[in-house]
Amino acid sequence: MNEFLPHISQLIQSTLKGFSFLLQELVLVLTFILVILADLISHAKRSAWAYRICIAGIFLSTGVGFIQNSDIARVTLFDNSLILDSTSIAFKYIFSAVTILFAIFIRFHKPLQNHRKGVGDLYMLLPAVLIGLNLMSMASSLLMIYLSVEMVSIASYLMVGYASADKRQTEAAMKYALFGSICSAVMLYGMSLLYGFTGTLNIIDPVFLNRLDLISDPAVALAIVLVLVGIGFKLSFVPLHFWSPDVYEGAPTPVTAFLSTAPKIAGFAILIRFLEPFLLPAQSYKLPDLFDFRAVLSVVAIVTMILGNFSAIWQNNVKRMLAYSSIGHTGFALMALIAFEGSGFSSLIIYFIIYAIMNMAAFMLVDKVADHTGSTDIRTYKGLGKVLKVEFVCFVIVLVALTGLPPTAGFIAKLFVFSSAFEYYAASDSIWALGLLITGAVATVISLFYYLKIPLYAYLKNSEAAVAVHVKRDFLTVVIVFLTFLLILYGLFPGLLS
Amino acid sequence: MSLLSLLIFLPLAAGLLILVLPYAWQQRYKYVALAAVGIQVIMSAFIYLNFDGNAFSGIDAKSKYQLVEQVSWINLQLGRLGSLQIDYFLGIDGLSMPFLVLSSVVMFIAVLSSWEIKTNLKGYFALLMLLNTAIMGVFCALDFFLFYIFYELMLLPLYFLIGMWGGARREYAAIKFFLYTLFGSVFMLLVIIGLYFSVQDPITGNHTFNMLHMMNPDNYIPGSIFSALAEQQIFGIPARLLGFIVLFIAFAIKVPIVPLHTWLPDAHVEAPTPVSIILAGILLKIGGYGILRICMSIFPDAAIDSAWWLGLIGVVSIIYGALNALAQNDLKRMIAYSSVSHMGFVLLGIASITAEGISGAMLQMISHGFLSTMLFFLVGVIYNRVHSRYIHDFRGLALIMPKYTTFIMIAFFASLGLPGFSAFIAEAFSLIGAFTSESVNGLLPRWMAICGSIGILLSAAYLLWTLQRMFFGKTRLMGGEDWKSKLTDVNGREIFVLTSLTVFALLLGILPSLAFDKMNASVLELIRLVNLK
User: Fold this and answer.
1) CB contacts < 8 Å between A and B, how many?
2) In chain A, what are the domain boundaries?
3) If you ran DSSP here, which 8-state letter would residue B116 be given?
4) Average pLDDT for B394-407
5) Which residue in the set B74, B81, B197 is minimally distant from A347, CB to CB?
6) Is B252 a residue whose pLDDT tops 90?
7) What keywords are assigned to this protein (chain B) (predicted)?
């Protein structure tokens, strides 16, 4: 015990210093407590105060983050267990924006609002989950990775199960929690192996790689695969995607929108953090011959793109279709990740910004339509294009963006991913990169097929009976139109993104 | 704002105006559209008259383009990928200028024939104007990125125009069209990215999407994938050849060539008349234009290597399209297949890489633009009256619709290449080009030209046979007296359209120099560039 004494003051000091870089998260902690209190004290209709405090808190934390991060290039905090650099800062902005959209979405989602449990507890979860997401984007030690992933997971389990009314929703929630906990257990096992091999939890520590170099290849490969399983669950890439269509269909639409956006992007943030030491060219570490990250991830990406897109074709439920489409998008983003070398995350981050906008908008539209017709089956969209004019024009634009056609931002996202993959191909001459490019192109054509199902039913097919829908528009419609506008704006002037 | 930008974005403005006009005015939307397109016609006529064909030979030199407009558009720092620089770069030369005139005239006629559209007028005219913007943009863009954006922008409006206002099988036709084109263009995107990383702006040193820079071998980064010197291979195929093939397939789907043509009969038949007119009159030409402007100019070495195959595809399209046309019962389907056949001449002419051949191909595209517009308009006339297009539903129409029959005869004879009409000159030049190719550059064997001329014979067969079946003899109609009363002769609006198209076809047939003078220098410049390799 005594030998640690001289270090204690130093440790305390570095910990205290670290807090000054976590103002954003501290504000969120405060918001979390305030939201609980507000929900306990005030009995306003629809938990109005909880909503307001929640939104205000997230805005405030983003603002604080903006001031705090303005001149940070790269700092490591808490004895190297967190990294704050331009990548994590960018991710944090994306998470804040998605969470705000999520809060607004909950506010205008009738089934949740009318639920007998109320929505106060759901608002309470938002700052908490945002802290988890932010930590995910900064984590650089195995322990931090595990903690942050669990933090987001537990909040996600709660969200999915929160309003489960019928059997299917309960099943979805149960499936999600069970599958999730198994995956995180597997990940923990992998991490314990890595810790055993190296004696350090810190993956950016050179010791980590040096000691790993001494271990036999199969053992390292096994440990890494186990960790990837846990991360893969969050990303829902093949073969760890089983849960997502059921959960996405069963969960309330705002929750689905959130789950398919923020935790997924955070999963990529973790993956970047985890792979960075292995892939950075500056490191002397030679990748184990047995385990080629790029090859394995390329295969995963190719299979994910194919399976996600092909499965989506057969879906008639819009939410399920979007679930599969988001699996396809995961494969696409993996393509950008594989091509990454060094600090060039820009194309990946731009992809995620645009993906977040498209995905949130798509689910908001699904909800908006379901609000009018009570159904998420595409076949009930017949003739709706003539009634819900604004909504469906936006829907078409969002779907075009999801397909990745100009002049929408989806095209820019796709172009950047293709570009980085191509650059990687040109540099490495890797057959995998070529495979990825071709699969990506084919997947685009396939995706058009199912995305266009929505305008097909909404506009092209005539409904036998006149559609009797009383059109109601609220603030959510404004948000949708705004997001759609952003998609076109960024599509024409992508320079605004940087 | 230069003339070209105005030409491109005027219809977009008109489309937006239509969107905000109240529903009570929906009968006036068409006049807004007509006014916008009318101004476009005047502008393109002005451009035509002021275009100096000899000075502005274009192709690979910016200084030789007229009405050039180059503004920095996207400037984005992309980490390791370097800085992304994309220009809003427009300009016209002898290859693109004729298409501006053609597009605006065809668009004008398409709007005039939109009188038949009765439902959801707001959506219809807004989409039509969006399509118009995209088409004009494609012909003016000199930056590959910009070109691609306009190229893809055409798809969505067309999908809805076919899908919402089309015939019984419209859903199938619309998605088929979309999937076919997208399939070509997604892979085109990969080649564009490849070119982007292979080419350097000689001044700034950045990668560039500038097409003119892509045409100059000096701008290729040594060792890059599409560099001619590096001789890179993909799947054992030279990268440049593969790039050429991918781009060619993307454009060939639009042309269309056999065997990638199957979307065309479906799309043409199911589309409403104005959209058929635009499809046949303009869209097919974008394929031919793309092959000339992009495939040939950027990959001249690969173009020469594959000239024989291009010629063969052209000949197969001519014969196969004509034989198919011969077998059709549906008048619109017959004309659709005749388009496949006629566009085969374009490919044959281009493949010859001779001045005659390429000029012939250019003129064939323009001539076919006017003639197919006329043919589809004529089909629209009877379809609107009795909602049938089956050849065997009609007989002896000449007796009840004499004026209509006159126009149909003009259109048919012009299409089958009667001397005096534009198609004759165009097809003759294409064939001359293909015929002399063996002695000039040895690219195409003579039998291709000979087989091509059989296509003319076949087109005479199917057109004259149709003429005889539908128009001559005693009047016998499927719908009896009811149809007889409905089949009124052409009205003033229709006469105006048909007469003006006849004038164009005759004018180009008698004075082909009206077109040749403007594009000759560009064609020669293109051939120089290709032979430079």
Assistant:
1) 105
2) 292-498
3) G
4) 90
5) B81
6) yes
7) Membrane, Transmembrane, Transmembrane helix
Chain segment B68-97, per-residue pLDDT in tens: 888 888 887 766 666 778 889 999 988 999
Distance in angstroms (rounded) separating the CA atoms of residues A416 and A427: 16
> Residue A343's pLDDT is what?
47
Rg of chain A on CA atoms, in Å: 23
Q: Suggest the residue from B186, B197, B208, B242 to mutate for an interface test with chain A (most A CBs closer than 10 A).
A: B186
Cα distance between residue B441 and residue B299, in whole Å? 18
Q: What is the 3-state secondary structure (H, E, C) of B41-59?
A: HHHHHHHHHCCCCCCCCCC
Residues of A in contact with B81 (CB under 8 A): 344, 346-347, 416, 419-420, 423
- Across the interface, whether the CB atoms of A418 and B193 are under 8 A apart is answered yes
For residue A139, the SS3 value is strand
pLDDT the model gives residue A11: 77
**Mean pLDDT, residues B400-416:** 92
Mean pLDDT of chain B: 90
Q: If you measure CA to CA, which chain B residue comes closest to A414?
A: B189
Minimal-distance CA residue of chain B relative to A424: B81
Shortest distance between the Cα of A416 and any Cα of chain B, in A, equals 9
Tokens of B223: 């060792």
Which own/partner pairs from A173-179 qualify as long-range (CB within 8 Å, at least 24 positions apart)? A173/A247, A173/A250, A173/A251, A175/A243, A175/A246, A175/A247, A176/A243, A176/A247, A179/A233, A179/A242, A179/A243
Distance CA(A400)–CA(A419), nearest Å, equals: 20
> Which parts of chain A have pLDDT scores under 50?
282-284, 343
Report pLDDT for B259.
87
Mutate which of A280, A349, A423, A442 to test chain B, going by most B C-beta atoms within 10 A?
A423
Concatenating the DSSP letter of every residue in B305-318 gives HTHHHHHHHHHHHH
Tell me what pLDDT residue A291 has.
64
d(CA A391, CA A381): 12
A126: which 2 tokens? 């938002």
**For chain B, what are the domain ranges?**
1-301, 306-533
Distance CA B132, CA B114 (A): 14
Q: Is B66 helix (H, G, I), strand (E, B) or coil?
A: strand
Nearest residue to A237 via CA among A156, A356, A328: A328
Please report the beta strands in A389-481, taking only residues with DSSP state E, as ranges in sequence order: none
Amino acid in position B130: L
Nearest to B379 by CA among B399, B393, B365, B364: B393
Decide: pTM greater than 0.90. Answer: yes
pLDDT for the residue numbered B463: 93
Percent of the residues in chain B that have a pLDDT greater than 70, as a whole number: 99
Q: What is the mean pLDDT of residues B127-143?
A: 94
* Higher-pLDDT residue of B444, A165: B444
Note the pLDDT tens digit of each residue in A436-445: 999 999 999 9
B460-517 confidence digits (pLDDT tens): 999 999 999 888 888 888 888 888 888 888 888 899 999 999 999 999 999 999 888 8
Q: Torsion angle, CA of B239/B244/B250/B253, rounded to 10 degrees?
A: -130
3-state class (DSSP) for residue A442? helix
Q: Sort out which chain B residues have CB atoms less than 8 A from A494's CB and list them.
A: 74, 76, 84
End-to-end CA distance of chain A: 50
Q: Do B152 and A341 touch (CB under 8 A)?
A: no
Q: Which residues of B touch A (CB under 8 A)?
A: 74-81, 84, 120, 148-149, 152-153, 155-156, 159-160, 163-164, 170-171, 174-175, 178-179, 182-183, 186-187, 189-190, 193-194, 196-197, 224-225, 234
Q: pLDDT, tens digit, for every residue of B327-339?
A: 999 999 999 999 9
Tokens of A420: 């980085």
Q: Are the beta carbons of B272 and B377 closer than 8 angstroms?
A: no
Give contacts of B146 with chain A, Cβ < 8 Å: none
Q: Name the residue of chain B whose CA is nearest to A444's CA.
A: B186
